[in-house]
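Dear colleagues,

I hope this message finds you well. In preparation for our joint manuscript, I am sending the GroES-like protein (Gonapodya prolifera) sequence together with its predicted structure, so that both groups work from identical material. I would be grateful if you could confirm receipt.
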Amino acid sequence: MSALPKTFKAAVFTAQGAPAEIKQVELKPPGDRQVLIKVKASGVCHSDMFTRYNAYGVGFPRIPGHEVVGNIAALGTGVDSKFQLGALVGVGWTAGFCGQCDRCRRGYPASCPKIAIAGLHIDGGHAEYVTVSEEGVALLPEGIDPAKAAPLLCAGITVYNGLRNIKEAMPGDVCVIAGIGGLGHLAIQFANKSGFKTVVISSSSSKKDLAVRLGAHVFIDTSAHDSVEEIKKMGGAKVIIITAPDAKLASSLVTALGHMGTMLILAAINEPLQVNAVHLLGNAAQIRGWPSGSAVDWEDTVKFAQLSGVEAMVETFSLEDYEKAYDRMMKNQVRFRSVITFP
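The corresponding structure tokens are as follows:
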């Protein structure tokens, strides 16, 4: 590996609500059990907004970014020998956790009360370098496209991990995807490749061709058809994945759940849902969320995507164009994930 520079370039939030500034930041050597990564790609997520507006109260300055792919540039003391200089690695949402609480011990570190979220509690990947504790680093297969792999570490894992943890759902069951965007375009692919009868609903027919290309077996245009009635004709949904932050949409689809069905809410919906409790009771149905995952889950997600052909659709930007990438993402103009890339 080449000698490390004294400083590196990064997109930095310095004040609440203000645009990110491209700044030179001091490069410090990794500490005990830390890994220094030279970033090749860093995905821009809606959650970058939490950093911009200090939603977690951690303050400024802060470098955002929690969909990071790069090569190991340096290792701190005590790092596991599986991590070698130059290895391709990834960092997602869960960049650190305590490892001692009941949630961690039971295998759910993404729900740890002391979680360290990349780009929120610690500096993230919209930079030439990022330093992360070893438990927050995933080993990735060589030969993958870093720009297309980066979104799998947040959007991808959120869909894949949430879906595979619904124990009642089996191949051949009906899986409905509501929303075709950054999460939705990956959800369609993961559902199809996992063997589900994949049903996509959208408010117009304009996305039908795209949905079918991505793997939809059935497309329902809600401007022309009653989606709940159409899903009921199929026997009800075993899974409904909500990928759009639309409380009205999610509420309207509850009665489309079949026996032992699960509504998996992956979008950050801030408004209350209206739920038909009688329908849930009569069908032993449920509504749940799923909080991303940890390094081993990122590895599983990338391996599954590589083997099955699941691929993120991305638009790439330079670090200097971070604000443009963020703006296109927030306005739902990007198709379908903005990714910052580095030479």
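For the figure legend, we might mention the following. The first strand starts at residue 7 and ends at 12. The domain at 166-289 is CATH 3.40.50.720 (Rossmann fold).

With kind regards,
E.M.
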